[in-house]
Q: What sequence folds into this?
């Protein structure tokens, strides 16, 4: 496939949802992108169920899992806002192929990714502790 | 995407208040002492959450089929569904908190 055709193929998003999982040879940023989309859709599903019955919660371990989903989406979302504001984004370089290592992951961005992941782990641990230990005690 | 990010920040703030109000007995009692304040928080939380969620779904659907006509239809459909959901959600809140 010629380079122009290759670029056009990706510009048309021919892979659709399957393209989210085409993460091989990509950076951690690409994994985070796919995970952000998946957690976002899971949260929408929870919201719809929660709207239907406002008192409904998945319960114990599922509550902890919900916490992991929500806290990941939150932590990665904060990282995305920082990127949108241009914080830690380096000079723009021409990326010729999707598999080429993007410049955005270099420099400060790497630390922001690490911080987002640490924030996610801390928040998920707090949420899980509350769901699994505190909530059953107070009923 | 500016509104998407703005609503994200609003969700973090109002969502935290919502979580505390419903799960922490001490802070929950303090928040629920003033139903108008709780309703205000929930009204903002619901609006921000619905905008963020439905806009996210819209972006995914538009990315799936990058077509101008499809984009337009999806945009209007999501807007109408979002407004109706907000109206129903707000009514449920008003009834639950004894305002109606």
A:
């Amino acid at each position: 496939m010629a380079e122009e055709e290759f670029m056009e193929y990706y510009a048309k998003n021919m892979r659709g949802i399957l393209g989210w999982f085409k993460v091989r040879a990509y950076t951690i940023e690409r994994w985070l992108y796919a995970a952000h989309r998946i957690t976002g859709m899971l949260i929408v599903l929870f919201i719809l169920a929660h709207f239907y019955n406002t008192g409904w919660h998945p319960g114990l371990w599922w509550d902890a899992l919900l916490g992991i989903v929500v806290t990941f989406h939150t932590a990665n979302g904060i990282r995305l806002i920082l990127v949108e504001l241009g914080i830690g984004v380096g000079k723009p370089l021409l990326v010729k192929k999707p598999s080429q290592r993007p410049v955005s992951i270099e420099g400060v961005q790497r630390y922001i990714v690490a911080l987002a992941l640490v924030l996610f782990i801390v928040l998920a641990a707090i949420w899980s502790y509350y769901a699994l230990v505190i909530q059953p005690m107070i009923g | 995407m500016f509104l998407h990010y703005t609503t994200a920040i609003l969700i973090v703030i109002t969502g935290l208040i919502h979580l505390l109000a419903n799960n922490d007995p001490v802070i929950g009692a303090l928040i629920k002492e003033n139903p108008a304040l709780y309703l205000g928080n929930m009204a903002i939380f619901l609006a921000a959450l619905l905008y963020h969620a439905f806009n996210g779904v819209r972006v995914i659907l538009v990315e799936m089929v990058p077509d101008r006509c499809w984009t337009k239809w999806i945009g209007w459909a999501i807007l109408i569904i979002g407004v109706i959901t907000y109206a129903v959600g707000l009514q449920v809140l008003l009834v639950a908190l004894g305002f109606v």
